[in-house]
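Collaborator request, handled under Task 6.
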Amino acid sequence: MRKEYSCRLKTFKAVCIVLLYEKLAAEVEEGMRRGVFAVGERVPSVRQASTQYDVSIKTVLRAYALLESRGLLETRPQSGYFVREMPAAKAEPPTASQTPAVASTVDVSRLVLSTLRSIRSEDATPLGSPYPDPSLFPWRKINQLANAIARRHSSWNLIDDLPPGNPELIRQIARRYAENGVPVDPDEIVITVGATEAINLSLQAVAKPGDTVAVESPTYYAMLHAIERMGMRAIEVPTHSSEGIDIDALANIIGEHEISACMVMPNFQNPLGFVMSDANKKRLVALLATHEIPVIENDVYQELYFGDVRPSALKNFDKKGLVLHCASFSKSLTASYRIGWAMPGRFRRQVEKLKFLNTLTTPSVPQVAVADYLRQGGYDHHLRHVRRVYRQQARLMIATVLRFFPAGTQTSEPMGGYVLWVELPSSVDSMKLYKAALDRGITIGPGTMFSSRDAFRHFIRLNYSYPWNIQTEAALKTLGELADSMAGRRQHER
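Structure tokens returned to the collaborator:
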């Protein structure tokens, strides 16, 4: 009898240990998903965890071993246990648009303007914001440089920074491209008021009112704004969530329509977040070159990559000067100064002339301040921090969306940037969801903003650049509940 009791006691203790270390592993993993333990950081030592969680050292060792076997922790000799990059929750990416290609007029500005106005509310959770979290930018340092420059030059000579722009800033931009394997001619660079002006000037240089422009579907609404502003027509090309614009479909469209230009975002496309492969970039440039069609490349997120190296640009493969490359510092360094640039290839003189006719010049002090910051160094250190934050928060948002949103929800798998594209069940209307969320102090980007054809009505775009906290997680949970109720209500109505 005593022997039987002893065996049962040992079995009970063993079960307790299993339950304890699995529970501890679950708690530590939850902390990792919430961002308490960030990628690359050390988790509490075995002794610290033993005291903190009131368990034995043996239990802690088993819990950490379990997390290590799952690929969530790694052991570093003499240092302890560190958080590895967490595997993203498995999500099937949204499918490409498959509707027939039809050239159409563009009228999305009113919807976008009303959406952006709602995002300005200080009380709202900015999940729909198109802008990155400004708290991650070194704005104090850049403002100090700008103030010092303004004091030194009380009467600035405007002639110094007429198009193409401040010579030192142009040199720094060219140097940065060269350091990243993209040799450019500094004489090709034209400084603009953000990438938006670069895109507008480039489009104006290659097309005229009434012309048809090929765009991705979905596409970033700033592209549609430019087309709308100039009285042109857009023709949407199916775009895959990981491979980019469908080049075969584009070839067919070129054969059936007169296309004056093409506008694309091959790197970290907004809203899909993909990076086109080098093979597809070469194919796209070659196809357009064959037909002498210029392509406007929006590469505004070029520095916000999650991989080890910055991806190539279409500009890398341009042999005929048909790629008009547009970028800015607004998404990676400072949004308030709006310093952008264009490298327009064979259209350089026309873009420079249009810049002078449209806005005369880009403000001088911000140009010099950004040039000084780049010259002094620190930009790469800043970018490494931003990329690390965005990569971790992208994974957190994907996991949270798939946890709280209706069954059947799918997300993109961004490779850079700071936006997530979410496909909801087809019964959910993103505009109704937008309005319901706004009533609860939450903003989102409804999918209809990203098409000229009222497409993507059950899609939304979310911003994951802002701090991950209890408010963010609660907002996503509320958003998921709203979407779930809409999906359920439509199912009931049927």
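The cover message to the collaborator said: "DSSP finds 15 helices and 15 strands in the chain. Residues 138-379 form a domain with the Aspartate Aminotransferase; domain 2 fold (CATH 3.40.640.10). Please let us know whether this matches your experimental observations."
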